[in-house]
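Reading is simple: the token line describes the chain's fold. The lines below illustrate.

. . .
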Amino acid sequence: MNETPLVFSHEYTTQATPSGTRVYVDVTAENGGDEQITPDGQVPNITCTFLDNAGETLHEAGKQLVQPVAVGESMSLEFPLTIDTEDVTRYELRCEWVES
């Protein structure tokens, strides 16, 4: 559920490394609202949850806004998964306001 004026686009990619496979979700969040979003008071917290076939959580990570985002500007976020990469079948993105 998106409770912010942010408009999201995202992409799922994999990368082979010497120690195994890494999975990434690259997220671009654009401020589609009418005013600047600042890191003062309440801020958007974007969470990416990696799930297996049974819907069990393999890994969850959240990132909060730390820089202002003007109207029409965007920010990029990356959510990596380095463990249980063969078990991941989907991911979920969630955004909600939290106290900074």
